[in-house]
Amino acid sequence: MAPSDVAIIGTGLHPFGRYPGKSALEMGEDAVIEALADAGVEWSAIQALYAGSMEVKNPEAIVGLLGLTGVPGRAVFTGCATGATSLAMAAHSIRLGDADIAIAIGLDKHPRGAFSDHPSVSGLPGWYGEAGLFLTTHFFGMKINRYMHDFGITPITLARAAAKAFRNGAANPRAWRRTPMTAEQILESQYLNYPLTQYMYCSPDEGAAAVVLARADLASKYTDKPIYLRASTLFSRREGAFELLSPSLPLETAPSPTVFASQAAYEQAGIGPEDVDVAQLQDTDAGSEIIHLAENGFCKDGEQETLLAEGATEIGGKLPVNTDGGLLANGEPVGASGLRQIHELVTQLRGRAGDRQVAGSPRVGYAHLYGAPGTAAVTILST
Questions:
Q1: Structural domains in the chain, sorted by start
Q2: Average pLDDT for 100-129
């Protein structure tokens, strides 16, 4: 590692859920205070700030709560990939010499309902969601239905992915949904958009997360367990005629941008998927996790059926996925979601995850995101 590279020295998380009377900025303040304490630095030491949010148009205004130190604060938004983007921009500010210590912050406070109720995201009129025509749920249902047909995936595999998320959430004291459910219970719940049932979808909610980064050669001044940023990539789609918001259905001529982001990240980090010890994959719905296992190179299309039946993605499996419960157990405040992934990976790589700790001293963590309008991001961390 070059001495000019970047390390994570602290993380903070305001648990995701519902917090009436508490603003997104206030949740962000709590996450930052926790991250600063974890890093062992004062707010005045932060030299660059990148904050991401969907609902808050100027999230960099969090400096009004934390302290007006003159720190340059910049707002970031790339849909569900926002957390990875804010982290990458904070890291780039260090690599460019603009800062020795920087912070990435994500925060959001979404109302109840599917994201198609948000004209700022979908561009659709309000009546669309009010009539029950939820764009996001329709799209994800159609996408996994096509994938199941093409590659022999059965509904029990979707249910197993969701049941794993809720088991992991039950072991995570900061998760929103902490009630375990069996695969059978999930299968028997009502369909929202075939083949996805009620408990196969995540929900918009509220929360915040923060990550403090430093020059790698300075990291040991602040922590005895720095986590190094090995790769950070982001790609947008190259084609897409089937949908409005997310990567297109699998096409031979234009794979999902996840494929390009993943391949570039492995090249940057100098590793392959076989080297990853713990992964966080975007699981807006249970089907997305299934598809993303293949798109990120962890298996071939169709192999997920056997992998999940064998427990390969469980905490005790060969590739633990979404060890904190992922989006299904935590919900998705869009601006904060990607940094929640980083918080969990850092917790795992430091060996501090308690009942959900991956055994064997994991060394490499992998985080994947995708969101509107077909933007995919991958981050690779290591000890």
A1: 6-112+206-221 (3.40.47.10)
A2: 73
- What's the sign of the alpha-carbon dihedral 323, 105, 200, 305? negative
Q: How far apart are CA 244 and CA 246, in angstroms?
A: 6
User: If you write DSSP's letter for every residue of 285-329 in order, what string do you get?
Assistant: BHHHHHHHHHHTTSS-TTTHHHHHHTTTTSTTSSS-B-TT-HHHH
How high is the pLDDT of residue 30? 98
**pTM for the complete prediction?**
0.93
Please answer whether residues 377 and 84 qualify as being in contact, where contact means their C-beta atoms are separated by less than 8 angstroms.
yes
Say if residue 239's pLDDT is above 80.
no
DSSP β-bridge partners for residue 51: 75, 105
Tell me the sheet residues that pair with 284: none
pLDDT score of 115: 57
Output DSSP code: residue 358: P
28: left (phi over 0), alpha (psi -120 to 50) or beta: alpha
φ/ψ of 240, rounded to 5, equals 165, 115
Measured between alpha carbons, how far is residue 50 from residues 61, 88, 116 in Å? 11, 9, 27
| Cβ count near 214 (within 10 Å) | 26
DSSP 166-205: HHHHHT-TT-S------HHHHHHSPEEETTEEGGGB----
Per-residue pLDDT of 213-225, as tens digits, reads 999 999 999 999 9
Pair of tokens at residue 275? 């080297």
Query: What are the respective helix, strand and coil percentages of the chain, to the nearest 5?
Result: 40, 20, 40
Instruction: Express each pLDDT in 156-167 by its tens digit.
Output: 999 999 999 999
With a CB cutoff of 8 Å and minimum separation 6, the contacts of 379 are: 84, 87, 88, 229, 231, 232, 265, 338, 341, 342, 366, 367
H helices present in the chain, as ranges: 24-39, 63-66, 82-95, 119-122, 126-130, 135-151, 155-170, 183-188, 257-269, 286-295, 304-309, 326-330, 334-349
Question: Beta partners for 108?
Answer: 207
Peptide bond into 15 cis (omega under 30): no
- Of the candidates 16, 373, 7, the one whose C-alpha atom is nearest the C-alpha of residue 222 is 7
Quote the CA–CA distance of 140 and 134 in Å, as a whole number: 10
- The CA–CA distances, whole Å, from 121 to 117, 172, 372 equal 8, 30, 8
